[in-house]
Design a protein that fits this description.
The chain is mainly beta. The protein is 3% helix and 46% strand. A six-stranded antiparallel beta sheet has the order 1-3-4-12-7-10, with no helix packed on it. A four-stranded mixed beta sheet has the order 11-8-9-14, with no helix packed on it. The chain has a two-stranded antiparallel ribbon with strand order 2-5.
């Protein structure tokens, strides 16, 4: 058993996010583990760019309301205590509503074969971000 040393909070890079986003790396597994977990804090209106994960991603909402969008135009509202699973290869984005901060735990893993864990794509347009939402309640 080992108590893991905490890393300092860092701000997400602007080339992969819109708005202000901060990360706390909770776990970054070393072989044979490929698990990753971050606490991610989004300021109002902040969001990821479009992206996909080789082995999928799970998002657990801690506070605020998360918006999770997919290429078919769905924008799901997820609330504290709710968990959303994004399947392997699904292009998606996630972020905060325009008027509230949002925190979620992001969990994903590497493929273990040298494939990129996350493939980053283009920015999410304001029109897409402001599209109609489906409530997860």
């Amino acid at each position: 058993m080992e108590l893991l040393k905490q890393q300092a909070t860092f701000k997400a890079p602007g080339d992969r996010f819109t708005g202000d986003v901060w990360f706390d790396v909770i776990y970054s597994g070393e072989e044979p583990s490929r698990m990753r977990m971050n606490m991610v804090r989004f300021s109002p209106g902040a969001r990821t760019d479009w992206h996909r994960h080789a082995v999928g991603q799970t998002l657990h909402v801690v506070s605020g309301t998360a918006l999770i969008g997919t290429r078919d135009g769905t924008i799901l509202e997820a609330h504290p205590g709710q968990t959303v699973a994004c399947p392997p290869g699904e292009e998606h984005w996630h972020g905060a509503t325009p008027d509230r901060f949002m925190e979620h735990l992001a969990l994903w893993e590497g493929a273990g074969d040298g494939t990129e864990e996350t493939t980053w794509l283009e920015k999410v347009s304001d029109a897409t971000y402001n599209g109609p939402r489906t409530s997860g309640r």
